[in-house]
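Supplementary Text 2. Reproducibility record for the structural model of the 66-residue chain.

All settings were left at their defaults, and a single model was retained for analysis rather than an ensemble. We include the record here because the model underlies the residue-level annotations in Supplementary Table 4.
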Amino acid sequence: MKPIHLLGAIPFLGILGGIFFANRVTPYVLGMPFNLFWLVMWVVLISAIMAVIYRLDPANREEQSS
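Retained model, structure tokens:
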């Protein structure tokens, strides 16, 4: 499996797998319950991870003209 595919699996594991471990309300982060903060954090991280995947994907590279 290519590393780019593994990088694409990180958001899936973060949101769906991590929510069971972050299922708390009492600590508030930035005024949000921890569970909501966890989901918002992953939405932002998914954007960054997808940008990295886009940069690493060889199909998105332009051919260099000579």
